[in-house]
Amino acid sequence: MTAVSTPRAKAPHDEVSVAVQRRRAWARSAGLVTAVVVLGLLVLVSLSVGSKEIPLGDVWAALFGNPPDDYTATVVESRIPRTLLAVVVGAALAVAGAVMQGITRNPLGDPGLLGVNSGAAATVVTSIAFFGVSAAGNVWVALPGAVAAVVIVYAIGHGRGHGSPARLVLAGAVVTAVFSAYVQAISLSFPDAFAAYRFWVIGSVAGRGFDTFWSILPFIVVGLVLCLSLVGPLNALALGEDSAVALGARPGVTRLVGGAGTTLLAAASTAGVGPIGFVGLAVPHIVRALIGGDHRWLLPFCVVLGPALVLTADVVGRVIARPDELMVGVITAFIGAPVLFVVVRRLGARA
């Protein structure tokens, strides 16, 4: 007589677990939609606020070809490039920071961790001092230094072995120190280069046009595609090196692709608006506090909340220093410093 197998009934805790996961997914989806709406409102505010405020209704009408007058149309049009730059640069820096923290398993990671920003700054100041090339928007000026820095860091961090997150972080600190010393030496030796460099190095979206936006956009798109393709491997890597290998992930390839993606994102952003600090550090931690560390949700939220942070900083900088304005890099430093303090406190509590 043949035994007939019956399907195992689902345990009550399995059904509860599925229900909890569905509620979390719905909550995260609703949160992401809300964040997109907030970002859209911030875009309108960015187009509205300045030395001369434009009512939001007039901004909306100007965007759809029905401005109340030529002056409104001109003002809104002049603010579009800096708003678009704030959006793409914010997304680039936030995603780069999240991926950098993931591939190094270092909660204090940001795009500058592997020397990307200092390498880009080194070639920028060199181009200004020796070749008279403008830095703003010239990706081909910043990109070689950023790539060189990452290659050197990986060469030092891996050595003859397989490397480790700790070795990569230490190598990044060394390379950053060397490039930063070089930048300081060139800036102080060439007064003209220092005069141009000191405005660029603070980081600002003001004074840039569509030419800057279109020149950096392809690099940022490619970098975002590379980074967003790593959501699965980054989740596996978060469990540890051995667990990631057991799950079929390849940590070396993940770090290589992640390094390439973050290099493109950081170099293009740095070339376009100068180095803007703390966005790559602060935004991923803010997102983790809201929705957890699952990279399937973490990176999309960073794509939205990164621009929201940069736009907010840009608007605040325009409002608090009227008729002048504070640069974005200054405002993000004030926002990011408390986040860094909180993260360090939490790390100290876990130690």
What does this structure look like?
- One of its GO terms (biological process) is siderophore-iron import into cell.
- It is found in: Cell membrane.
- It comes from Okibacterium fritillariae.
- The protein is an all-alpha fold.
- Among the domains are: 110-202 and 215-274, ABC transporter involved in vitamin B12 uptake, BtuC; 276-344, no CATH class.
- 76% of the residues lie in helices and 0% in strands.
- It is built from 14 helices and no strands.
- It has helices spanning 12-48, 56-63, 70-104, 116-131, 139-158, 165-189, 191-200, 210-228, 231-237, 241-246, 251-273, 279-291, 295-319, 328-350.
Give a quick rundown of the structure.
Keywords: Cell membrane, Membrane, Transmembrane, Transmembrane helix, Transport. The chain is an all-alpha fold.
Which key phrases capture this entry?
76% helix, transmembrane transporter activity, ABC transporter involved in vitamin B12 uptake, BtuC, mainly alpha, 351 residues
Task: Please tell me the overall pLDDT.
Answer: 83
Q: Which stretches are poorly predicted, pLDDT < 50 over at least 5 residues?
A: none
DSSP summary, beta strand count: 0
Structural class based on helices, strands and sheet pairing: mainly alpha
- Tell me which CATH architecture of the domain at 110-202 and 215-274 applies here: Orthogonal Bundle
Per DSSP, the total helix count is: 14
Q: What's the order of the H and E elements?
A: HHHHHHHHHHHHHH
Transmembrane segments: 30-50, 80-100, 112-133, 139-156, 168-187, 217-240, 260-286, 298-320, 326-344
Keywords: Cell membrane, Membrane, Transmembrane, Transmembrane helix, Transport
Protein name: Iron complex transport system permease protein
InterPro entries: ABC_BtuC-like (IPR037294), ABC_transptr_permease_BtuC (IPR000522)
